[in-house]
Amino acid sequence: MSEGEKLTPQETGMCPHGNFLATCSLCNEVSEKSEKDRIWERTSQEIEQIGDKLGKGIDDGVKESVIALTVNEYPTVQSCEGHLDEKGLSYPWVQVEAPAPEGWEEDDIKKQEWTEANLHQRERMTTMLKEFYLDREEDNDSHLILADQGIYEAFRLQSAGGEVMDSLSRIQQEEKQKMYRKEMKDFTDFLRQQFEQENTDAELRERINKINELKIGNAQKADIILVVLGFKPATELSLYENNDSESTVINALEQAGLKFEPKDPSEYSKNVISEFKIALDSTLLDRLTHVSAKKDHTEYGRLMGYPESAVQAFGKKDALLDEQDYPDMTGIILPLKLSKENWEDELKYLRKGSEAIKKYTPELYDELVGDEK
Q1: Half-sphere exposure of 333 toward its Cβ, with a 13 Å CA cutoff?
Q2: Whole-angstrom distance, CA of residue 48 vs CA of residue 57
Q3: What is the DSSP letter of 105?
Q4: Cα–Cα distance between 57 and 155 in angstroms, integer?
Q5: How would residue 316 be classed by pLDDT, with cut points 50, 70 and 90?
Q6: Among 23, 6, 2, which residue's Cα sits nearest to residue 200?
Q7: What 3-state DSSP class applies to 155?
Q8: Torsion-angle region of residue 153: left (phi > 0), alpha (psi -120 to 50) or beta?
Q9: Which residues pair with 80 in a beta bridge?
């Protein structure tokens, strides 16, 4: 591979859809997907019937959003695609509200239960939106927010700028409505993707847990987990006297579905008992076994999953961002020297990897954050 050549999405472990290759349901044709389709279709039919009972069907422009929220177990009660020439609001919205307990009107305990149920949905939605915007250019105007509804913590999912649309000109309203509808649709697509990945997520967590249970260094543990997730194509592992035995580690790597092989003892670092090269698949492992970190840092950096800009800047002092100019690195658990030209994109990469560890192994993430302090 030449120095300027880039890895394909499949080689880096990221799929064309921008997801972890190991978990993208759009790439992996599995039997669960047909079952997911049936659930989606059944939910669609149920929502159509609800609309008919009310005498007016759910607006076509927001119908898929209601379906996507429902299959992800967000209870919805009202919605609108936004209308400029009718009564009501001019922007799209969906109200999420837990079912009211029977007899809640005269029962303070049931009122509290209802409030807590809505707070649970609010917390789930906040987490979902955070993940949605993790790798997305944010427009403060279109950005989806949770607008309070009533005193029991119900909320409407809507764009932040929606409530000031009435003060705009007709042309501006039309432009904003188009923007807000697109934002809602993009989030709807994201929700459907999350729904389709749900079953594979359980299996993925089981594989990750095999690595997380190992008695090895936290940073090395996180690196291997990122390989399982497909965030990193490959990594290396060094075992020391106080770590798990080689046989225990081999068993965990096998159960995690990773490809690996031991390094030549002549390559061991000081005080190391054993070392492994680990990769997402056999092709990547073969490439890792034929590259030297010292002699070809470009190819090695790519195999470690580092952004191309950081790989090219490595070892070039003039190309690296001065430490005094570093942005806020709070919550970042992955090591990387940022480049002057592309540090913002590289920071997004670090946040995405850190968030992945936080999502799948929160205790490990907390320990790593503590190690950084």
Answers
A1: 26
A2: 7
A3: G
A4: 21
A5: confident
A6: 23
A7: strand
A8: left
A9: 93
CB 72 within 8 A of CB 190: no
Q: In whole angstroms, what is the distance from residue 229 CA to residue 359 CA?
A: 11
Q: pLDDT for 159-193, tens place per residue?
A: 999 989 888 999 999 999 999 999 999 999 999 98
Nearest 5 degrees, angle CA 91-CA 93-CA 94? 165
Residues 6+ apart with CB under 8 A from 110: 101, 102, 103, 104
Pairing mode, strands 259-262 and 274-279: antiparallel
- Distance, in Å, from the CA atom of 330 to the CA atom of 210, rounded to the nearest integer, reads 28
**pLDDT (average), residues 109-121:** 95
- C-alpha distances in Å from residue 371, one per residue of 240, 364, 366: 19, 11, 9
Predicted TM-score (pTM) of this structure: 0.53
Token reading at 19: 């997801």
Helices (H), the chain: 9-12, 31-53, 60-71, 108-132, 170-212, 218-228, 246-255, 282-289, 297-303, 308-313, 343-360, 362-372
Region of 243 on the Ramachandran plot (φ > 0 left; ψ -120 to 50 alpha; else beta): beta
**Band of the pLDDT at 5, cuts 50, 70, 90?**
very low
CA neighbor of 22 nearest in space, from 220, 232, 211: 232
Compute the distance between CA of residue 234 and CA of residue 312 in angstroms, rounded to an integer.
18
Spatial separation of the C-alpha atoms in residues 314 and 297, rounded to whole Å: 8
Kindly give the interhelix angle for 343-360 and 362-372, rounded to the nearest 10 degrees: 130
| Cα distance between residue 369 and residue 271, in whole Å | 26
